[in-house]
């Protein structure tokens, strides 16, 4: 599940104006922008009357921010607060600031996130790299030191289930050029919007009903997996032979989430996964990523291979960007261990697109994946097991599944039960 990051502010504003905003003279298709904003405040975050709404945006995402803010107020939001993260400012920091200062985060950024949690507010953020090559001239080792826009406090608020929240994609020209380098920019931008419309079910007669139906299907799969109480999972395919132990009370979930007030939200749109927290002490073997990993605010990590021993990532190699992930897993004790394992079948619309989108939100919903770092403790039922679930400042998903990767559930007596073959559910 994509993490609920809340980009800190380079600026804050009460957003209530009109105006879609343009870049390179390209304007978002109005009907699709409206449909995406409707999903974000509706079945996504499910904003309630009287809530304070925190919107996290990066430069280039003004159009969706304004559309979401308008709808949030129309649903009765008390206040809409926008936090802007500018990656160009991060680039300046990485270019010139002393290395020893790059891990510093001003305390008020985290305090702002915690305050929103205390108010039981709603949180909405967007994904899609607006400036995908901005960090190409930065030493990859430095990219693992400055984690912004990620905040440790964001994980605290999420794990305590204080907010209803969602993340949605938003196409921008820079992202379109990255995904379709062979096309002229206007055609690439139109193509990306068309694919996002299909993946996010914006072109359905009733997108909300379509997502409710898909969420029901995923919830049924999660229930079946929980009832089997597998002791471990095994992933096997080209470059991959990985065994992931599960906790006795690991509970499989889909992306519907309920906050402490009973408000249900669909925290990722799109969502095609079922997931749980593994045993961070029992992961062994080698795994090869089947898609590039695009860490927000960093360059892509491609050709990634990770070896685990007794739960720890002891070797990280990549064709490009290994230093970024090595820096991240060195941040704390839990950063080198797994906090999530997720299964995705070939019915995923992201998978069926055949595209690499260079977005964790999208690419993780194309294939089975694992996440280094913090677990979602609400995916563990027993109190003692919750204490064993992994804890870290980071949560980095990377994709390890595909049609050539088989997934088996292992029972306590060692019996292997086929779960996915060729991306098709066997249970």
Compact description:
30% of the residues lie in helices and 26% in strands. With 427 residues, it is of the alpha+beta class.
Question: What would your notes on this structure say?
Answer:
The protein has 2 domains: 11-170, 3-Layer(aba) Sandwich (Thermophilic metalloprotease-like), CATH 3.40.1830; 209-425, no CATH class. Helices cover 30% and strands 26% of the residues. It has helices at 30-44, 62-74, 87-96, 107-118, 140-143, 152-159, 173-179, 185-199, 207-228, 322-329, 349-353, 360-363, 383-388; strands at 11-14, 52-58, 79-85, 122-127, 164-169, 232-237, 240-246, 256-258, 264-266, 273-276, 278-288, 293-294, 300-301, 305-309, 312-317, 338-344, 369-373, 395-399, 406-410, 416-421, 424-425. α7 crosses α8. With 427 residues, the protein is α+β, with helices and mostly antiparallel strands. Mean pLDDT is 91; it is low at 8-21. β2 (52-58), α2 and β3 (79-85) form a beta-alpha-beta unit. The strands form 5 sheets. An 8-stranded antiparallel beta sheet has the order 15-14-11-7-6-19-20-21. It is built from 13 helices and 21 strands.
């Amino acid at each position: 599940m994509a993490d609920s990051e809340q980009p800190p502010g380079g600026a804050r504003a009460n957003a209530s104006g009109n105006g879609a905003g343009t870049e390179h003279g390209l304007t978002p298709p109005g009907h699709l922008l409206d449909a995406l904003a409707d999903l974000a405040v509706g079945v996504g975050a499910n904003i309630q009357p009287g809530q304070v709404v925190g919107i996290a945006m990066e430069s280039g995402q003004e159009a969706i921010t304004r559309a979401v803010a308008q709808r949030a107020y129309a649903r009765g939001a008390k206040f809409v607060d926008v936090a802007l993260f500018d990656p160009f400012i991060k680039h300046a920091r990485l270019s010139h600031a002393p290395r020893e200062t790059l891990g510093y985060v001003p305390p008020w950024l985290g305090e702002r996130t915690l305050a929103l949690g205390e108010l039981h507010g709603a949180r909405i953020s967007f994904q899609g790299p607006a400036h995908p090559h901005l960090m190409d001239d930065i030493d990859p080792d430095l990219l693992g030191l400055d984690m912004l826009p990620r905040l440790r406090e964001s994980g605290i608020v999420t794990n305590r289930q204080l907010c209803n929240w969602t993340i949605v994609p938003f196409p921008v020209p820079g992202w379109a050029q990255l995904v379709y380098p062979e096309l002229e920019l206007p055609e690439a931008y139109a193509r990306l919007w068309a694919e996002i419309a299909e993946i996010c079910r914006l072109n359905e007669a009733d997108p909300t009903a379509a997502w409710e139906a898909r969420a029901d299907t995923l919830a049924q799969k999660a229930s079946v997996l929980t009832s089997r109480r597998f002791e471990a999972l095994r992933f096997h395919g080209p470059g991959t032979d990985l065994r992931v132990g599960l906790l006795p009370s690991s509970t499989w979930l889909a992306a519907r989430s309920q906050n402490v007030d009973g408000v249900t939200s669909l925290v990722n749109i799109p969502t095609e996964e079922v997931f749980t927290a593994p045993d961070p002490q029992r992961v062994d073997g080698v795994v090869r990523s089947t898609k590039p990993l695009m860490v927000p605010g960093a360059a892509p990590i491609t050709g990634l291979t990770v070896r685990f021993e007794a739960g720890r990532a002891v070797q990280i190699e990549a064709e490009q960007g290994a230093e970024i992930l090595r820096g991240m897993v060195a941040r704390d004790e839990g950063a080198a261990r797994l906090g999530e394992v997720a299964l995705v079948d070939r019915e995923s619309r992201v998978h069926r697109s055949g595209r690499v989108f260079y977005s964790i939100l999208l690419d993780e919903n194309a294939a089975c994946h694992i996440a280094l770092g913090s677990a979602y403790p609400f995916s563990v039922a027993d109190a003692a097991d919750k204490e064993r679930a992994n804890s870290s400042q980071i949560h980095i998903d990377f994709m390890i599944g595909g049609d050539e990767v088989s997934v088996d559930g292992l029972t306590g007596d060692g019996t292997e039960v086929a779960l996915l073959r060729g991306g098709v559910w066997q249970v």
